[in-house]
Specification:
Layout (H helix, E strand, L loop, with lengths): L2 H27 L3 H6 L6 H12 L2 H14 L1 H4 L4 H23 L4 H9 L3 H32 L6 H49 L2 H19 L34 H16 L1 H8 L5 H35 L11 H7 L6 H39 L5 H25 L1 H16 L2 H8 L6 H18 L19 H18 L9
Helix pairs in contact: 1-9, 1-15, 3-9, 3-13, 3-15, 4-13, 4-15, 6-11, 6-12, 6-13, 7-8, 8-9, 8-14, 8-15, 8-16, 8-17, 9-13, 9-15, 9-16, 10-13, 11-17, 15-16, 17-20, 19-20
Length: 517
């Protein structure tokens, strides 16, 4: 057997053992539904800092971010500012949600929204947003893990088999131990994610001929674009390094001259990524904390500084280095999806043990977010649908059992869609964070501004979700006369524009007789 396969099995085995350990420990600790769904509101500072960072920066950061830089050049690298905008949402809302959860013993955000605004429509819409966020986002991550091991095993493990096999352990430890198990496994996943990105950046620099080789190679790419007169922005610069203007008035982002990533597209894409910490899942992370002091450390140190530095350096080294390795003949066939696996594979002969370690780093990155969304979505379905409408007197035992069943259901749905609808899951995955961002007006109403009514927030959320769907890649399903990202504005930008406008207008002409309790 190939040396790298042996090391791959060894490192994955150690990683799985760690996951199962915390699954068993979490199951033994979870005596009540609050223990299971919110880790007994006892998550410590260091655990939250690492777990929330792992949840915020997932396999898309590890595999997708360098791949997009490879495809779209340095203009997409401006997306690395999401290391600031993701925690900015946390700065605005997490501490206030934590205080509300502490005061009123909320377990799910649906309980919080329903209690404040009144009525059940907002509760059900919150579960819907959680579903729209969780299933496609989870499907993308699980599919990527199958793709990764297909490449690293040289086709020995098929994509679908790898995806189902690698997901099994995640489902087991999440269903067993709930959010406590997720949090402690996420701690290791966060460290592995950051370590893997740094090592892969170093590999890209090394095989590009060092720092000089990397810079010279980038210079050659720019010279080639300019001399050929192709791949230029409207201002005549190479689209590999220059943003193609502030905005372009086109019916679809793909029609923009010099690439989609205008200044407006970059900014509204930041809006989409802000949807991670405004999503219903992150409300539950807020409720689960023992103290609010953890938030500042995660937002400023872990996310903005540590991950920010890593994103603005090592992911760019990987994306730019991919072109240089292609030009130098080290890569023969590389694209945004297989760039990272191919970088890992460069070490197959010289350091097979590092191939195994980096594979686990990538796997940990992909599963860190998925585990959290499995756990939190199962909690929302259990508390906001099962115990609210089906069994209001359900015991803690029944609630935990329901939560475990829904972990299997949501994972199964994500796997089935990912296995059978590759293109659809990619399209839906891009929508996930934009959907999460549509919770902003509801959060603003709870945390800051009392002028939003129940009717306004509900109507705004519905309109926002529709606007996102009609301005993302899913617009192709509805025969509208525009494509994805019209005017080079991301779907999250269009969604929040219509969402906030509707919320403000409807709130102006309606009033709440209940709610705002």
């Amino acid at each position: 057997m190939d040396q790298k396969i042996i090391w791959l099995i060894a490192f994955v085995g150690i990683y799985w053992a760690y996951c199962l350990f915390w699954g068993i420990k979490g199951a033994l600790t979870a005596k009540t539904s609050t223990d299971y769904f919110l880790a007994g509101r006892s998550i410590s500072i260091i655990v939250f800092v690492l777990a929330a960072t792992a949840t915020s920066f997932s396999g898309w950061t590890f595999v997708g971010h360098p791949g997009k830089i490879f495809n779209d050049g340095l203009p997409y690298a401006f997306a690395s500012f999401y290391a600031l905008t993701i925690p900015f949402t946390g700065v605005l809302f997490l501490r206030r949600q934590w205080a509300l959860g502490k005061a009123y013993n909320y377990i799910t955000p649906g309980e919080m929204y329903s209690d404040y605004y009144g009525g059940d429509a907002i509760r059900l819409l919150t579960v819907l947003v959680a579903f729209l966020f969780s299933v496609p986002y989870l499907g993308v991550q699980l599919r990527a893990s199958g793709d990764l091991f297909y490449v690293l095993t040289d086709g020995l493990v098929s994509v679908n088999f790898g995806m189902f096999a690698l997901s099994t352990i995640v489902v087991i430890y999440v269903a067993s131990g709930g959010l406590r198990s997720v949090a402690y496994v996420d701690c290791a996943q966060c460290i592995l994610l950051a370590l893997g990105i740094v090592i892969l950046g170093g590999i890209a620099i090394h095989y590009s001929g060092g720092w000089t080789g990397l810079m010279n190679g980038l210079g050659d790419i720019v010279k080639q674009d300019i001399s050929s007169g192709k791949n230029l922005t409207p201002a005549g610069y190479s689209k590999s390094v220059a943003i193609p203007g502030s905005i372009q008035f086109v019916s679809a982002g793909s029609k923009a001259v010099g690439g989609t990533w205008t200044g407006m597209m970059c900014m509204t894409y930041m809006f989409a990524l802000m949807g991670i910490q405004s999503s219903p899942a992150f409300s539950m992370w807020a409720f689960a904390n023992k103290t609010s002091r953890a938030f500042r450390w995660q937002q400023v140190i872990a996310s903005s500084i540590v991950i920010g530095i890593i994103l603005f350096t090592f992911t760019i080294f990987q994306g730019v280095g991919g072109h240089i390795l292609l030009e130098n003949g080290i890569f023969s066939n590389v694209n945004d999806k297989n760039l990272v696996p191919q970088l890992i594979n460069l070490l197959s002969d010289s350091m097979p043990w590092l191939v195994g370690l980096l594979a686990v780093c990538a796997l940990a990155a992909m599963q860190s977010t998925g585990a959290a969304y499995m756990s939190t979505f199962s909690a929302m379905v259990t508390r906001d649908i099962y115990t609210k409408y089906i069994s209001p007197t359900a015991s803690d035992h029944l609630q935990k059992l329901s939560g475990r069943i829904f972990v299997f259901i949501v994972a199964g749905m994500a796997l089935i869609v990912a296995a059978n609808s590759t293109q659809a899951i990619v399209m839906l995955g891009g929508l996930a964070v934009a959907y999460g961002f549509q919770m902003y007006p509801a959060l603003i109403g709870i945390c800051y501004y009392k002028g939003f009514t129940r009717q306004g927030v509900v109507m705004g959320l519905v309109v926002g979700l529709i606007a996102v769907t009609l301005t993302d890649k899913t617009s192709a399903w509805f025969g509208v006369p525009w494509g994805a990202y019209p005017l080079t504005i991301h779907s999250a930008g269009w969604g929040i524009l219509f969402n906030l406008t509707t919320t403000i207008l409807v709130s102006k002409f309606t009033s709440d007789n209940e709610g705002h309790s």
